[in-house]
Amino acid sequence: MGDAEAQPARLPCASERHEPARHDPVYAALDLGTNNCRLLIARREHRARRKSDMLRVVDAFSRIVRLGEGVSQARRISEGAIERTLAALDICRDKMSARGVTRARLVATQACRAAENGEEFVQRVLDRTGLELEIIDRETEARYAARGCGALADPQADSVLLFDIGGGSTELVWLARAAGAAGFELRHWTSLEIGVVSLAEHYGGRSVDATTFAAMTERALAALSPFAAMTAVERRCQRFHLLGTSGTVTTLAGVHLGLERYDRWRVDGLWLSDEDATKAIDLLRAMDFDQRSANGCIGPQRADLVLAGCAIFEAIRSVFPAARTRIADRGLREGILLELMEEDGLRASER
Question: Sorted alphabetically, which Pfam families does this protein's record hold (predicted)?
Answer without folding.
Answer: Ppx-GppA (PF02541)
